[in-house]
Amino acid sequence: MSTIFVVGIGPGAYEKMTIEAADALRNCDVIIGYTVYVDLVKEHFAGKEFLTTPMRKEVERCRLAFETAAEGKQVAMICSGDAGVYGMAGLMYELSEEWPDIEIKVIPGVTAATGGAAVLGAPLIHDFALISLSDLLTPWEKIEKRLLLASEADFVICLYNPGSHKRADYLEKACDLMLRYKAPETVCGIVSQIGRDGETSRTMTLAELRNTKVDMFTTVFIGNSQTKEIRDHMVTPRGYRYE
Amino acid sequence: MSTIFVVGIGPGAYEKMTIEAADALRNCDVIIGYTVYVDLVKEHFAGKEFLTTPMRKEVERCRLAFETAAEGKQVAMICSGDAGVYGMAGLMYELSEEWPDIEIKVIPGVTAATGGAAVLGAPLIHDFALISLSDLLTPWEKIEKRLLLASEADFVICLYNPGSHKRADYLEKACDLMLRYKAPETVCGIVSQIGRDGETSRTMTLAELRNTKVDMFTTVFIGNSQTKEIRDHMVTPRGYRYE
Q1: What confidence tens digit (pLDDT) does each residue in A142-169 have?
Q2: Which domain holds residue A64?
Q3: Chain center to CA of A177
Q4: pLDDT tens sequence across A80-137
Q5: GO MF annotations for this entry (chains A, B) (predicted)?
Q6: Do B128 and B216 share a structural domain?
Q7: Is residue A10 part of a domain?
Q8: Is residue B95 part of a domain?
Q9: Which of B10, B110, B240 has the CB atom closest to A58's CB atom?
């Protein structure tokens, strides 16, 4: 039985990949992924065969992985961040029923939530909820409900896909929903291009976040009621008592 | 200005550490951490000075890191998983106000949620909430509220610290709360000793999970209404349409 490795390469920089992920890419014949991610790893894995499909061609990309593995090649399918967080691991398992002789092994990586948190300080130290604002595959009503209930529960919230050209006002809409339960002065932070050239980050209040424009390479963090700003960093206390 | 690296070493196995984390440990003079985590990395970083404090001595451990850095030594403070997810990064920032000349840099790692998800299949492909059942530092009423609202919002839920000797019935209590909104046949999974010797995993229904005993080395996953079992794995669809 052959195995396809579904590999999370982390936020982008080679050093943010796990040793296990780098080993899997070194030991495979073919690396398959979205064009942008293949470009991120290419220089570190010379001599491999690279196959790419554009965005929105996820099903084709998965089928390509199975077909290539069925030819007897060792395949690694790469995803940015963690392959299991809004990544391709799920679809690979769903399609794998058509290829019962091929096994899937997921190799975890650093997702944008924890990669971005490390840049901002320590926003995710306590219970948090991860919500994607993309309504391409999820009805907006469901996203809205999750934003409201997660805010009512006082979770730290991390938003993936907070905006794009088409969805320019989604972050503003999300902030208005969160403001029903979270205070306007709630400490928030944004990180763009995590672990890549041009990485930037900023802390601000939820009221300020509402009027901030973000793109699809930005990850957004909204604190809980205890999150504070310490030395320009966003920090959520765990609750250890100290004098 | 000197810098302390707060390093997430991942679930435990050396290969699950990022390249950046391994570099930070190789380049430091002193590695500080909870005894169990220091034992996990010791053999890979021979020649370093190792300092440990037991569990519940987190504040002392952080002060030790600052005092050692103030002596001019390069310090790495290690945490299992990601240092920013129920880890020491928050407390390090909080205490850092007493040491304004020392900078903190967090190096992210694979947390148990994504490490465990990779073992089970792909349970976290869509929006999820991370909740710790430990009421040592959080009032149980707050945990209860978060379990209820996260279930009502149909999040996939990942539970950290689901049980211990003292809290033997906490998972059962948590399941009863989640069962108010989630169906008894909701697909769930548990993983123990992620990435370490003796790693085990199991998928089951929420009704079965309610009657399952777990320890503090177990991470628990409760699916959303769409999570399914595919080839013995726990898989949450993202929603890509395919025929």
Answers
A1: 999 999 999 999 999 999 999 878 888 9
A2: 2-107
A3: 22
A4: 999 999 999 999 999 999 999 999 999 999 999 999 999 999 999 999 999 999 998 8
A5: precorrin-3B C17-methyltransferase activity
A6: yes
A7: yes
A8: yes
A9: B240
